[in-house]
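Notes taken during the Thursday session

The instructor put the following on the board and asked us to keep it in front of us for the whole hour. The protein is Protein kinase domain-containing protein. We were told not to look anything up and to reason only from what is written here. First, the residues (225 in total):
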Amino acid sequence: MGVVCCCERESLELDGEVNLSHFSLLRSVGKGAFGRVRVVQHKTTKQLYALKYINKAKCIQMKAVENIISERKILEQIDCNLIVNMRYAFQDEDNLFMVLDLMLGGDLRFHLDRLGTMPEEYVRFYAAEIALGLNYLHSLNIIHRDIKPDNILLDGKGHAHLTDFNIATTIVDSKPLTSIAGSFAYIAPEILLKRGYLSSVDWWSMGIVCYELLFGKRLTLLKIY
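Then, after some discussion, the predicted structure tokens were revealed:
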């Protein structure tokens, strides 16, 4: 299917400042912790995107401002066609907005719930694309820290894309991290043990995902130790 990880980034300039008026607002497709997600169309290019609303008051209430700022900074560094890229970002008085690649194929959680398990050839294909995406992130010293089926979206052609960088972080000077972050079922032992960790934790999570896709159940830490 010929996948190359990096692509040319779209210009973030639209004759000056980008704002909501540059887009036609279409249907709602979901709701996150800080607001809804809806399909929008760029009025000039006619390109479809996913517009993520992030309510400022909710961010402050949930003490998530630092995470949102970190997520945006990380997304600004990323340009890979196996990741849900941020194409534009702007704000108004009430909301922050992220304009993201639109994925029409659903997430792997949806497909796993629908199918129960997946054929090995499907899992090999998804594993290869997830690995390419992780390699790209790690080349930028970015750790995702929340690889799970819910955060792997499929496009209209069935290619896998990593999404949700809310708890992603950057490694500085190869210094191991000690903070606990991630979804428990997919979290690497070294994170829980607080012995310090680097990007290898994403590979652990990917392994758990592949096991779950193949067998329809999660491999838990209690079964490993």
